[in-house]
Amino acid sequence: MIKVLNLYAGIGGNRRLWKDVEVTAIENNSEIAKIYQDFFPNDKVIVTDAHQFLLEHYKEFDFIWSSPPCPSHSKFRFMTTKMKNKKFLRKEVYPDMNLYQEILFLQHYFEGKFVVENVKPYYEPLIKPQECGRHCFWANFVIINKKEKDKEFNIRGSKTRHKGLDISKYSLKTVRKDQVQNNCVNSEIGLYILELAFKKPQQTLTELNTNIRATEELVSILPNPKGIGYP
Predict the structure, then answer these.
(1) Would 87 be classed as within a structural domain?
(2) For 82-126, how does the pLDDT look when each residue is reduced to its tens digit (9 = 90+)?
(3) Is residue 118 a part of any domain in this protein?
(4) What predicted TM-score, i.e. pTM, was given to this entire model?
(5) Which of 91, 116, 162, 133 lies closest to 125, judged by CA?
(6) DSSP code of 127?
(7) Is the backbone of residue 147 left (phi > 0), alpha (psi -120 to 50) or beta?
(8) Domain, as residue range, for 128
(9) Number of domains present in the structure of the chain
(10) How far apart are CA 197 and CA 143, in angstroms?
């Protein structure tokens, strides 16, 4: 059985359709963690800091999914710092570099499969991502871009109750329900990426890059009687 570490787990949108996996979920908000545990009673749920937990326990897992907080990177928040309407005006903040710390750490230390998910930022990403829908994914396997079929297939922001995670009965004191729902990764995307990592034949990024280099080297030695560049 695949051992999965689900970081910044929220209420488990990305996890809902996973089967035959042993999941450890990390969530720092105890109210949200309680909802997650209700939805997935067989998962191990730990209320702690996901960033630190990753550093201390990454070797224990086969697959790691991380969805670090995205507001400090988002185009929407950046735009609202410039709005004149005080209702939406937000204070400037530094981008949270925990995102890139985790990507670099997993790229160089982790021997299993991993994916780090976040919004497309208002700046040029410091590490080139793959894209799926409207979001960025950093992974050590190839993610084929799955285009959105309709609004229900958006990576985030879908109505959670329509995805099998109805939170209407819960009273939350520390966070708004709409915020919890908007942070919920679409379950179909979560399943799609897990299947790409383990259940579908694929090239790893290393193999893909090797094949690209080999093709370029082959092209460079092919006869070119017309003396023009390779089309």
Answers:
(1) yes
(2) 665 555 556 787 888 999 999 999 999 999 999 999 988 888 999
(3) yes
(4) 0.78
(5) 116
(6) S
(7) beta
(8) 2-202
(9) 1
(10) 9
